[in-house]
């Protein structure tokens, strides 16, 4: 499925039958084990066709982009990205007993790998990574807000269950909706939602991963590539 935002947002007035329609909703289903990949196809198309001057705000409570998403975002997409993920303290597994307690460290390792890749491809100016933190909260937010060139309000938002990671794409049943709109009131609400979330975040830098609480034990670094496809 291809979602052409410009056709909806800029072209709706050209057709009299469509002139009063200002919002479109696309259901997106993903169930990889059964070959249902509507969501993955749509997301890759959105990332791939995003142009220079546009900006995508992407939130994932369990940040673990698939290699396909990484390739498109890092090497094919032209837009800016501002990605919001959970800090270790607000990860749903923080403080858990046994092996589950190591999950936040695995996500730190995955985030560090992504940060290094953005540096390898000289994309730090185009792709930003942020950590969400609120004391005594956990972070499970997932979603996307898409701003067209020179627009101060988003023209598309994606809401649903997917975290854009391996588990969402290849293992679980996920359902999302892509909302494309030029309704000013709705756009304002979507912007307020994204701003409210990002207000509780800090920008990730090289120094972030040098902090003592970002240390990843050797055994987790060894097993992370093996368990990454289950996160």
From TrEMBL:
EC number assigned by the record: 2.7.8.5
Location, primary (coarse class): mitochondrion
Superkingdom, taxonomy of origin: Eukaryota
GO molecular function: ATP binding; CDP-diacylglycerol-glycerol-3-phosphate 3-phosphatidyltransferase activity
Function: Functions in the biosynthesis of the anionic phospholipids phosphatidylglycerol and cardiolipin.
Pathway membership, UniProt: Phospholipid metabolism; phosphatidylglycerol biosynthesis; phosphatidylglycerol from CDP-diacylglycerol: step 1/2
GO biological processes: cardiolipin biosynthetic process
Family membership: Belongs to the CDP-alcohol phosphatidyltransferase class-II family.
Protein known as: CDP-diacylglycerol--glycerol-3-phosphate 3-phosphatidyltransferase
Compartment(s) where it occurs, according to its Swiss-Prot or TrEMBL record: Mitochondrion
Protein keywords: ATP-binding, Lipid biosynthesis, Lipid metabolism, Mitochondrion, Nucleotide-binding, Phospholipid biosynthesis, Phospholipid metabolism, Repeat, Transferase
Reactions accelerated catalytically: a CDP-1,2-diacyl-sn-glycerol + sn-glycerol 3-phosphate = a 1,2-diacyl-sn-glycero-3-phospho-(1'-sn-glycero-3'-phosphate) + CMP + H(+)
GO cellular component, one term: mitochondrion
Organism: Mytilus coruscus
């Amino acid at each position: 499925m291809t979602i052409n935002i410009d056709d909806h947002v800029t072209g709706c007035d050209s057709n009299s039958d469509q002139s009063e329609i200002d919002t479109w909703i696309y259901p997106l289903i993903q169930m990889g084990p059964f070959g249902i990949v509507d969501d993955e196809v749509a997301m890759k198309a959105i990332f791939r066709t995003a142009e220079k001057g546009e900006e995508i705000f992407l939130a994932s409570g369990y940040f673990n982009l698939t290699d396909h998403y990484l390739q498109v975002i890092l090497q094919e997409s032209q837009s800016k990205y501002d990605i919001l993920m959970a800090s270790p303290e607000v990860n749903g597994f923080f403080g858990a007993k046994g092996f589950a307690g190591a999950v936040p460290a695995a996500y730190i390792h995955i985030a560090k790998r992504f940060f290094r890749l953005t540096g390898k491809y000289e994309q730090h100016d185009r792709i930003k990574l942020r950590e969400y933190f609120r004391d005594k909260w956990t972070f499970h937010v997932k979603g996307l807000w898409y701003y067209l060139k020179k627009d101060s309000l988003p023209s598309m938002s994606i809401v649903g269950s997917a975290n854009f990671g391996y588990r969402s794409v290849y293992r679980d049943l996920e359902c999302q909706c892509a909302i494309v709109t030029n309704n000013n009131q709705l756009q304002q609400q979507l912007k307020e939602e994204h701003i409210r979330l990002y207000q509780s975040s800090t920008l990730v830098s090289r120094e972030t991963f040098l902090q003592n609480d970002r240390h990843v034990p050797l055994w987790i670094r060894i097993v992370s590539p093996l368990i990454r496809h289950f996160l």
